[in-house]
Inverse folding.
């Protein structure tokens, strides 16, 4: 029958110095990127198919963060120290397996967190300045045309209102003063109401009879003289 000789770890001063290495290895890689999306130019539409593009500025604030937490969290662990005292020098500890005390050992375990704050911005501007100026001129001309068209329609409306209100007033038809539509014809003035003669003056030109002695006998002249007086 074969026998095996037990081997024990060496001790220092009766206290074991057993090598008990502990190696913890952990790592993480985090790739973070900020993407700036460049949108189209700002386009203004003025009607009539006129569209002008202006400079565009894009501002993108961003906040990124990362938290790495280890659970359960232990900052230290306790390594047992055994009693290896051999008083009888037989090569065998007198109290094998007896734990004298526990030695605290740091684990170097840590939580980590990162926070990044920033702003990205882009500025885009058309290069052809002449085309931009022409587009602005065309937009201004089209706006003036729309304003004039609106003024013409307003004038047509006011003239039609004046005409219709005047004809109704001549016919003796009008809104009641308490009607919400009384204001439609409130500013229309009828200068010549029917059946009313406006005050007026006539100038009569008095011209004297011409001093002419007509031909004839004396009786005729006498009659003319008497008629004149």
């Amino acid at each position: 029958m074969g026998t095996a000789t037990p081997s024990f770890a060496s001790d220092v001063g009766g206290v074991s110095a057993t090598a008990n290495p502990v190696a913890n290895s952990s790592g993480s890689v985090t790739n973070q990127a900020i993407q700036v999306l460049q949108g189209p130019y700002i386009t203004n539409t003025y009607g009539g198919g006129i569209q002008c593009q202006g400079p565009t500025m894009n501002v993108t604030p961003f906040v990124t963060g990362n938290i790495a937490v280890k659970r359960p969290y232990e900052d230290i662990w306790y390594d047992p120290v055994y009693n290896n005292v051999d008083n009888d020098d037989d090569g065998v500890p007198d109290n094998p397996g007896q734990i004298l005390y526990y030695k605290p050992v740091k684990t170097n375990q840590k939580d980590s967190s990162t926070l990044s704050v920033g702003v990205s911005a882009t500025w885009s501007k058309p290069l052809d300045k002449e085309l931009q100026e022409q587009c602005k001129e065309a937009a201004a001309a089209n706006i003036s045309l729309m304003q004039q068209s609106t003024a013409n329609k307003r004038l047509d409306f006011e003239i039609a209102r004046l005409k219709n209100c005047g004809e109704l007033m001549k016919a003796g038809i009008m809104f009641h003063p308490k009607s919400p539509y009384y204001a439609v014809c409130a500013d229309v003035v009828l200068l010549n109401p029917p059946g009313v003669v406006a005050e007026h003056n006539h100038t009569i030109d008095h011209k004297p009879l011409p001093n002419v002695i007509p031909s004839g006998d004396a009786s005729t002249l006498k009659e003319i003289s008497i008629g004149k007086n």
